[in-house]
Design brief:
Blueprint lengths: L19 H13 L5 H16 L19 E5 L3 E5 L2 H8 L5 E6 L13 H21 E11 L13 H11 L4 E9 L8 H6 L8 E8 L17 H9 L4 E2 L5 E2 L15 E3 L8 H9 L11 H10 L5 E4 L6 H8 L3 E6 L2 H7 L59
Parallel strand pairs: 2-11, 3-4, 3-10, 5-9, 10-11
Antiparallel strand pairs: 1-2, 4-6, 5-6, 7-8
This protein binds S-adenosylmethionine.
The site of S-adenosylmethionine (SAM) has 20 residues, from helix 3 and strand 11.
GO biological process, one term: DNA restriction-modification system
Protein name: Methyltransferase
InterPro entries: DNA_methylase_N4/N6, MeTrfase_CN4_CS, RM_Methyltransferase, SAM-dependent_MTases_sf
Length: 413
C-alpha cells in the first residue's frame, strides 16, 4: 500500500560542515538518545533551545487569563487582612494591582523536588515550577518592596550530598527575573533533630543540618528598611563596656574602634543568623486542629521569622502577602503589627486550622524572647584524634558493627 503523503513534507536540505570526528560524535549522541537521524536530533535541540530562551518558541509569559480572580474564594476577613482559598497565581496575575505589595513573606513548598533524585534535573524542575510565581512576584511588588523566601535545603537520597535546588532558585530569581539579593539570612533552628540519621548518627560523616536559607530579595537595590527596628539586646561584654567605658584604639584587624563605640544605641544590630527554635507543639492552633480532627500543617515557620522581616521592612498600613500561606503564620503576625495582609493557600484543610489563629480572638505574638541560644565555639570539646579515625571511604559503607542492622530511613527535608 502506498505511504500516505505527509502534510508538511520535509523536502529542504541544509548543509552543515563538520569534521569527521564531530559528525561521528553527534551521530553517536543522537543514536544513544534514541533519535532516528541527525535531522531529528537537530530539530529536537532547536525546539529545546527556543523553549528555554523564548526565541520564537512561543511566549513563555504567564497568561493572566489562565488564572482569573474568580478562582480565588474569600475564606476569612479580619480588620487588616484576608485569606483566599485557591491558587495564588490568580492573586498575583489577576486580583492584585501591579506595584501594590510592600513585602512578600513566604515559604514555598519544597517537597516538590522528586523523591528519587534531588539532582540537577530536579533543581531545574523546581525552578521551572517556580517561574510563574517569580513573574507574578515581580509584577505585584513595589520598587521599595522586598521578597523574602524561607527555603530549606535537601539531601540527595541515598547519598551524603546536598541538592543545589535552593541556590539555583536564587540564581534564577536574580539572573532571569532581575531581583536583587539584598542579603541572605540563615534561620538557625536549635531544636532541629540530627538528620539524616544515616549520615549524621550512623556513619558520622556529616553534621547536623540546622539552618534554612532565607533569601531577602528586592526589585531595586534600595528597598525600604531600617535595622533599628530589629535590634537585639547588647551582649554582657557590651553592656559592661557601655557602663565602664572603652579606650579608643586600633584593632588587630586594622579597624579603628573610636569612642563612638561607647554610645548606647538601644541595642545591637542583629547578625543575619536568626536563632529561633521551632518547637511550638501546643497552643491554640494545634489544640484547635486536634479538637477538630484537622491536619496540623507539617511545615510551619515560627512567628518570629515573619515578625523580624515585617518589622524590619514594612510600616503599619503596608501590604504584606504570603502566596504560600499554609497555616497563615504570616497573616497572624501582620494582623498583630497592623499591616494590611493577604494569604493564599491551596488546601482548604490547612485554612480550617488557620482560622483558630484569628477566631474567636486574635492570637498574640509570642511573648517569650528571653532565652538566648548558645552556639559553642568550634572544637570546644577536646577529642583524641587517634580515637576517632577518619572514615576513609567517606561513609560509603556503614560501620562494620552496624552492617546487619536495617538502615534508618534517610530523611530528605
Ligand atoms: C511550606 S508551606 C507554608 C507554611 C506556612 N509558612 C506556615 O507557617 O504555615 C507551603 C504551602 O504552600 C501551599 N501552596 C502550594 N502551591 C500553592 C499555590 N499555587 N497557591 C497557594 N498555595 C500553594 C501548600 O499547600 C503549602 O501549604
Amino acid at each position: 500500500m502506498a505511504r500516505p503523503r505527509a502534510e508538511n513534507p520535509r523536502t529542504k536540505t541544509a548543509n552543515i560542515r563538520l569534521t569527521e570526528e564531530e559528525r561521528a560524535e553527534i551521530e553517536a549522541t543522537a543514536a544513544a538518545q534514541g533519535y532516528a537521524s541527525l535531522s531529528e536530533y537537530i530539530r529536537f535541540l532547536h525546539s529545546r533551545f527556543t523553549e528555554e530562551e523564548g526565541l520564537g518558541g512561543g511566549d513563555k509569559k504567564t497568561n493572566p487569563r489562565d488564572f482569573p480572580a474568580k478562582l480565588l474564594r474569600p475564606f476569612l476577613k479580619t480588620d487588616h487582612g484576608q485569606v483566599f482559598w485557591g491558587d495564588s497565581r490568580s492573586y498575583l496575575f489577576s486580583k492584585a494591582e501591579e506595584n501594590s505589595v510592600d513585602l512578600i513573606m513566604t515559604s514555598p513548598p519544597f517537597g516538590l523536588v522528586r523523591k528519587k533524585s534531588y539532582g540537577n534535573e530536579d533543581a531545574d524542575r523546581y525552578c521551572d515550577w517556580f517561574r510563574p510565581f517569580a513573574e507574578g512576584f515581580h509584577r505585584v511588588l513595589k520598587d521599595t518592596g522586598s521578597l523574602v523566601i524561607d527555603i530549606g535545603g535537601a539531601w540527595v537520597p541515598g547519598q551524603p550530598t546536598r541538592s543545589l535546588y535552593h541556590f539555583k532558585l536564587l540564581v534564577m530569581l536574580v539572573e532571569e527575573y532581575g531581583f536583587h539579593l539584598c542579603q541572605e539570612h540563615y534561620w538557625f533552628n536549635p531544636s532541629k533533630l540530627p538528620t539524616p540519621a544515616e549520615w549524621v548518627n550512623v556513619r558520622r560523616v556529616r553534621v547536623k543540618d540546622a539552618v534554612n536559607t532565607v533569601w531577602w530579595l528586592s526589585k531595586t537595590p534600595y528597598p525600604k528598611a531600617n535595622n533599628r527596628r530589629v535590634l537585639q539586646p547588647y551582649s554582657k561584654s557590651m553592656e559592661h563596656l557601655l557602663k565602664n567605658g572603652y579606650k579608643a584604639k586600633l584593632r588587630p584587624s586594622g579597624h579603628d574602634i573610636s569612642d563612638k563605640f561607647n554610645k548606647d544605641n538601644g541595642g545591637s544590630v542583629p547578625p543575619n543568623l536568626l536563632a529561633i527554635a521551632n518547637t511550638e507543639s501546643n497552643g491554640r492552633y494545634q489544640d484547635h486542629c486536634r479538637a477538630e480532627n484537622i491536619p496540623i500543617h507539617p511545615a510551619r515557620f515560627p512567628a518570629q521569622l515573619p515578625e523580624y522581616f515585617i518589622r524590619f521592612l514594612t510600616d503599619p498600613g503596608d501590604l504584606v502577602v504570603d502566596p504560600f500561606g499554609g497555616s497563615c503564620v504570616t497573616g497572624v503576625v501582620a494582623e498583630n503589627l497592623k499591616r494590611r495582609w493577604t494569604c493564599c493557600e491551596l488546601s482548604e484543610e490547612y485554612l480550617l486550622g488557620a482560622r483558630a489563629r484569628f477566631e474567636p480572638e486574635l492570637q498574640p505574638l509570642p511573648k517569650d524572647r528571653a532565652i538566648p541560644y548558645e552556639i559553642a565555639s568550634p572544637c570546644a570539646r577536646p577529642v583524641a584524634e587517634e580515637d576517632a579515625p577518619l572514615f576513609a571511604d567517606g561513609g560509603a559503607q556503614r560501620p562494620a558493627s552496624m552492617r546487619k542492622k536495617a538502615s534508618p530511613k534517610i530523611a530528605a527535608e
